[in-house]
Amino acid sequence: MSTATNMLGAWEKKWLVWSHERGMWWKPHRTGYTYYKQEAGLYTYPEACSICEEANKHTDDVPCETMVDAATIDEQLIEEEDV
CA-to-CA distance for 83 and 78, rounded, in angstroms? Predict the structure, then answer.
């Protein structure tokens, strides 16, 4: 499969954004964070890229935010850790 075909597929998918910094998913419309996948925002490829690029522009090693293909995420809830 060509890179162009892979990129076209990326544009058609919906994406979640995982915050490594907070250990949570981004909520819809960039309105905060949630532990639960079903409460996470579904972003277009350009939206998710924008979020990650902005959050990661000052990091050298470990990204603060990562895009995740919504179709690849397990349906189980992310368990909230003891705070």
Answer: 14
